[in-house]
Design brief:
Blueprint lengths: L5 E6 L2 E7 L5 H12 L5 H10 L3 E7 L2 E15 L2 E13 L12 H13 L8 E2 L4 H9 L3 E13 L9 E4 L7 H14 L4 E4 L3 H9 L7 E6 L8 E7 L6 E8 L5 H14 L4 E6 L1 H6 L7 E11 L6 H6 L1 E3 L9
Parallel strand pairs: 5-6, 9-15, 12-13
Antiparallel strand pairs: 1-2, 2-3, 3-4, 4-5, 4-9, 7-13, 7-14, 8-10, 10-11, 11-12
Length: about 325
């Protein structure tokens, strides 16, 4: 939040101010989040995301009230082995009374374009990405804000699945000695086997911030390992499905991509052990392809991948990106 974007402008004839979010704006951001999403986020959530996570935001103010906002959280990436610092877009919000005002020059366009231009294409962040719904993405594509980057699918499996005799799974508590070292080694194996994938960083520091420090969200780490080795091959991250006690969310996998189907079997069995009927997961095409052999009982579109054009990536560079995304890569699951 060290920038100083500040601009006065008129929207629908009304004087407004476009400026960067500051820590003192937390109450205004929370109020808009509640209004737009019906959420229950609070000061602890703001601290987790915008202080601990280094989040940044740009807001549009009218008569002292925040009416629109676009934000993002930095994340390290490996794009086919190239290390970058990218920006995950989130908390894109417009107060309902202002959503239909002059679409191309309205609040949504001003905060999004201003945020993207001030952060992307300037050397600070290599690329930006987010998970808009189809309607939001269509609007952003029409107005030249985003490129479409693919579909995210929601998958569902019913009941347990057997692991081969040569594999085991167990819950791994983050308080266990050596947890961080095991997580870092699992991430190193994933990174080494990533090939052409675009992988968001999944080391122990990020895992703790994303899953353990986030207020009000519990996470379970499930270790996949050989019976003759206690060192996990990889870690799956599971969490209760909000509002659905019959489902368990599979949020993440940290380990070699080729072990993903085995991890799925372990997660299904863990869900059944907990008395839960369904395992669900979000998956980009790179993830979905590696889960095809598991034959999920349900598959539907849940989000799209949007990439701001301000990142100045060429069409060829965008087409070459093979995003590896699961639910934990979002900022809202």
């Amino acid at each position: 939040m060290s920038h100083a974007v500040y601009e006065t402008l008129r929207v629908a004839g009304e004087p407004m101010t476009l400026r960067d979010l500051t820590p003192q704006d937390a109450p205004a951001l929370l109020a808009l989040h509640h209004e737009v999403f019906g959420s229950q986020v609070d000061a602890a959530w703001f601290d987790w995301k915008y202080r601990q996570g280094g989040g940044e935001g740009l807001g549009l103010w009218w008569q002292g009230t925040l009416i629109a906002h676009c934000g993002g959280v930095p994340r390290r990436f490996s794009h086919a082995g190239r290390r970058t610092r990218d920006l995950q877009i989130g908390d894109v919000m417009v107060s309902p009374p202002w959503r239909g005002v002059l679409t191309r020059t309205g609040p949504f366009n001003h905060v999004s374009r201003g945020f993207y231009r001030s952060r992307l294409g300037s050397g600070r962040f290599h690329a930006g990405y987010g998970f808009p719904g189809n309607r939001h993405l269509q609007l952003a594509v029409r107005t030249g804000l985003l490129r479409a980057g693919g579909v995210v699918s929601g998958l569902r499996w019913d009941g347990p699945a057997a692991l081969p005799w040569s594999w085991r799974a167990r819950v791994l508590a983050p308080t266990e000695p050596g947890f961080d070292a095991m997580a870092d080694r699992a991430w190193a194996r994933m990174l080494a086997a990533g090939g052409r994938l675009s992988l968001g960083w999944r080391d122990a520091v990020w895992l703790r911030w994303r899953y353990l420090n986030r207020p009000g969200h519990g996470a379970v780490f499930l270790a996949l390992y050989r019976p003759w080795r206690r060192e996990p091959e990889g870690l799956a991250v599971l969490a209760p499905q909000p509002g659905d006690p019959t489902s368990l969310q599979w949020l993440d996998w940290v380990g070699p991509p080729e072990r993903l189907a085995l991890a799925c079997a372990a997660c299904r069995t863990e869900a059944a052990r907990r008395g839960v009927a369904h395992l669900t997961a979000w998956a980009s095409p790179a993830v979905t392809a590696r889960l095809a052999a598991t034959e999920p009982q349900g598959c539907s579109e849940v989000a799209r991948i949007g990439m701001p054009r301000a990142a100045l990536l060429s069409d060829a560079e965008v087409a070459a990106l093979d995003w590896w995304f699961m639910g934990g890569d979002t900022d809202f699951l």
